[in-house]
Design goal:
The structure holds 2 protein chains of 2 kinds. Chain A is of the alpha/beta class. In chain A, about 55% of the residues lie in helices and about 10% in strands. Chain B has a domain at about 15-155: Rossmann fold. Classes of the chains: A alpha/beta, B alpha/beta. Bound molecules: iron/sulfur cluster (2 copies). One iron/sulfur cluster binds near residues 73 and 76 of chain B.
């Protein structure tokens, strides 16, 4: 196989993330540090000059480096091996201080989390709150089984107002006039850029493969609502657009186009996806990096935040998610799909066995359901994974004739 | 159903059935299965429905493995298994409240793979102490009432709801009486007498439970100085653990179980607006670990209960793959340790074998009673 085409923007991405994490550790600045989850309405924090730091992103970075020992530290402290490995890594790292990867994540002054991804995140943040004796604010975003009911949107909006008062009280912050609108404007812009970048993967060959998407999604998570993120994604957009225009594919000899469902297998990011790339199989779209696709509407900023954060992908019914996957398969002309049945994440994974059949029936495309874990390498059975991937690729080859 | 001459036989009998037999004889369309103690039973009852808790003692039906990953708790596997193997055909509907991530997913999976089952969802607040939770929950209760009307033709009046609140208050009081008289009952009988509250039609349960409590009141304490244990955890659907405690010479002096006493200490107000009363009860009741209730941590509740019941040890029963409990057990264990209370963590699944559980319980009973 030829060389895997690296994006030039990767260098800039590295610098951006380094700066972000250095800031989290550097306690000389006066801004309070809030540890937040990926689905927290960070625009409010930007507008109130609170530094947002993401334990989930940190856990994923540790997962890439190998973080089994951190899982074991958490298990030693009583946390079951069956719990989400992000949570175990984060708790293990918090218990390990500066000996954790990247010298650890420092300490939070505040904790803010939102259960729009799962209930696990709340229990995890409660544990962080106890560990650091830091105050925790939980935003309760009711799960959306059908449409978003008005009383649910009102409930979330009321809590966001309360969060503002809480930050005023607990962190002596003020909501600067116009600052929330500005953060929302930047969020909107960055989300649209990310959407545009992902959409170039409709071209054949696709300019990006899943590992590119997984790596380059970091700023949309940790720097959403900032000018730096906008500048970064403009640059990435230009590069990806250029690839698409020039017919440069992410992998050489793209033969099969696949959809990826669930969180990345961070611990095997290059090795696992290489199994596919080596056979010309490219993941052209996915449900994970698309979870940051919702654009905050214009209008009342609090109401807009309430709506957008309550209706994110993981907070919606299985039927809705299935519909999204079907649409993606169609839009990106996928020949098949791979579902990572991720032991860590019940919210993402419990419905996959039933969704797999439905999706295969609806699209006529084959699907592989693969049990593994995003970071805990004990749940990744190398030989079995390889055998199942190869069998799946043979099915694809058979269909392609 | 009329009261049995032996109320205990009635209460124990219903715990032995996978799905209570009375459901088959109940008027068609009148029964609704519920999956969790956060189901608003009073509202369902006021709609003319007979709520019954769905549980699946024994290994989950094999069908559930087709539709669920192996890392799913046996509660959810059991429920889905029953939904797909046709066990729930006699129920008008199933209500899945919002507790944990697994339960939330179960609703979507049921709708996909068991379309014959009428699924109602009910998304009660996670942040039960939020100042805005009550207003939201009241609207959510109204929304559920609207859906029951639209889909099952059931109407709820304020008066009807008030009567149901009173009925379930009496049930909670009867449960509390039995709970207070445990020293006259083997652990297995006490477990069954309390768990049956979720399995019998409410009027029938009340009659049997009051009758039992009256009989017990007149009886002599009989558990003597057997080692005193507290049972805690998510749910105990099978008699295995209480039966082993009896067999090994222990006694259970209190519980914090989802199908035991966890929700029983909070009664609903019987005056004023019944919708408000129901919402307030649901928010104030003993919080399940799946909720965010910072001022009422499980560990403190267990330590208080242990002190009040003079328990010598706490058995925390963990259903494997139950994330909320697996998280909560860590601080709870710390709190209990600081209070000097010995504890045993038992991880179980429905249908799990008795050998290991027996050995560990035996060792623990020896420990709390000061050696073999
Ligand atoms: S359970 Fe899933 S959604 Fe929740 S924190 Fe873990 S990986 Fe994220
Ligand atoms: S046992 Fe735990 S994981 Fe299973 S349904 Fe109950 S709360 Fe959820």
């Amino acid at each position: 196989m030829g060389r895997y085409a690296r994006l030039e923007s990767a260098l800039e991405l590295g610098r951006l993330m380094e700066r972000h994490y250095a800031e989290a550790l550097d306690r000389r600045h006066l801004r309070p540090v809030a540890w937040v989850n990926a689905g927290a309405p960070v625009e409010l924090l930007r507008a109130m000059d609170v530094l947002a730091v993401y334990p989930e992103n940190y856990a994923a970075m540790c997962g890439v480096r190998g973080a089994l020992w951190l899982c074991e530290v958490a298990e030693g402290a009583g946390y079951s091996r069956d719990l989400c490995s992000y949570a175990r890594i984060s708790l293990g790292a918090s218990l390990s201080g500066p000996s954790a990867p990247y010298e650890g994540l420092g300490r939070p002054d505040l904790l803010i989390c939102c259960n729009n991804s799962c209930g696990t995140i709340v229990k995890w943040f409660e544990a962080l709150g106890r560990l650091f004796e830091a105050p925790l604010f939980v935003i309760d975003t009711p799960y959306v089984h059908d449409g978003l009911p008005g009383h649910a949107a009102a409930y979330v909006a009321a809590q966001l107002q309360e969060l503002i008062h809480w930050l005023e009280r607990v962190a002596a912050r003020r909501l600067h006039p116009g600052a929330l609108e500005e953060a929302l404007r930047l969020s909107r812009e960055v989300t649209l850029l990310w959407r545009e970048i992902r959409s170039y993967c409709r071209t054949r060959p696709s300019p990006l493969n899943a590992p590119d998407l997984f790596t380059h999604m970091a700023p949309i998570v940790v720097l959403r609502g900032t000018a730096e993120a906008v500048a970064y994604y403009r640059r990435l957009r230009d590069e990806v657009r250029q690839r698409a225009q020039r017919g440069v594919g992410a992998i050489p000899n793209e033969r099969y186009r696949l959809l990826w469902d669930n969180i990345a297998i961070w611990s095997h990011l290059s090795r696992f996806y290489y199994l596919f790339a080596a056979h010309g199989a490219c993941f052209v779209t996915d449900t994970y990096t698309g979870a940051w696709d919702a654009v905050p509407e214009e209008g009342d900023p609090i109401e807009s935040l309430a709506r957008v954060y309550t209706t994110i992908y993981l907070n919606r019914s299985l039927r809705f998610r299935l519909g999204q996957m079907e649409q993606l398969m169609q839009d990106y002309a996928c020949d098949g799909f791979v579902m990572h049945n991720n032991r860590s994440c019940k919210a993402f994974s419990l419905g996959q066995p039933s969704a797999r059949r439905r999706l295969a029936d609806a699209t006529g495309a084959p699907g592989l359901l693969l049990e593994a874990d995003m970071c805990d390498t004990r749940a990744y059975a190398e030989g079995q994974v390889r055998a199942r991937v190869e069998a799946f690729l043979e099915t694809l080859a058979g269909r392609a004739g | 159903m009329s009261a049995s001459p032996d109320p205990l036989a009635t209460l124990r009998g219903v715990c032995e059935e996978k799905l209570p037999a009375w459901i088959r004889d109940a008027p068609k369309g009148s029964t609704i299965g519920v999956a969790c103690s956060y189901a608003p039973l009073e509202l369902l009852h006021a709609a003319g429905l007979l709520p019954v808790r769905l549980r699946c003692p024994g290994p989950p039906p094999a069908d559930s493995d087709t539709w669920l990953p192996p890392f799913t708790c046996s509660v959810v596997r059991g429920l889905l298994g029953m939904a797909v193997d046709g066990s729930l055909v006699d129920l008008a509907a199933v209500l899945l409240p919002h507790t944990c991530d697994s339960m939330q997913e179960l609703a979507g999976i049921c709708r996909l793979v068991a379309p014959g089952v009428e699924v109602f969802t009910f998304v009660e607040p996670l942040a039960v102490e939020s100042p805005y939770a009550q207003a939201y929950l009241q609207q959510e209760l109204r929304g559920l009432a609207d859906r029951l009307r639209e889909r099952l033709g059931r109407r709820i009046t304020d008066e009807g709801l008030r009567e149901s609140l009173a009925l379930y208050n009496r049930i909670r009081q009867a449960r509390a009486r039995i709970d207070g008289l445990r020293n006259r009952l083997p652990a297995l009988d006490a477990w069954a007498a309390l768990a049956a509250a979720w399995l019998l039609p409410p009027e029938d349960y009340l009659e049997a439970a009051e009758q039992l409590a009256n009989t017990l009141q007149d009886a002599e304490p009989r558990m003597g100085d057997r080692p005193r244990l507290l049972l805690a955890g998510s749910v105990i659907d099978e008699p295995l653990i209480p039966a082993l405690i009896d067999e090994l010479g222990g006694q259970v002096v209190g519980d914090d179980l989802c199908n035991g006493m966890r929700d029983a200490d909070t009664l609903a107000s019987e005056s004023g607006d019944p919708w408000t009363a129901l919402a307030v009860r649901l928010l104030r009741r003993g919080a399940c670990p799946a909720k965010h209730a910072p001022s009422r941590p499980l560990g403190q509740r267990l330590a208080d209960l242990a002190a009040r019941t003079r328990a010598q040890g706490v058995v925390q029963v963990m259903v494997k793959f139950c994330d909320p409990h697996a998280f909560e057990v860590v601080p709870a264990t710390q709190t209990l340790s600081s209070a000097g209370c010995p504890q045993l963590l038992l991880e179980v699944e429905a249908g799990s074998g008795r050998g290991q559980v027996r050995t560990r319980l035996q060792a623990f009973l020896e420990l709390v009673s000061g050696g073999p």
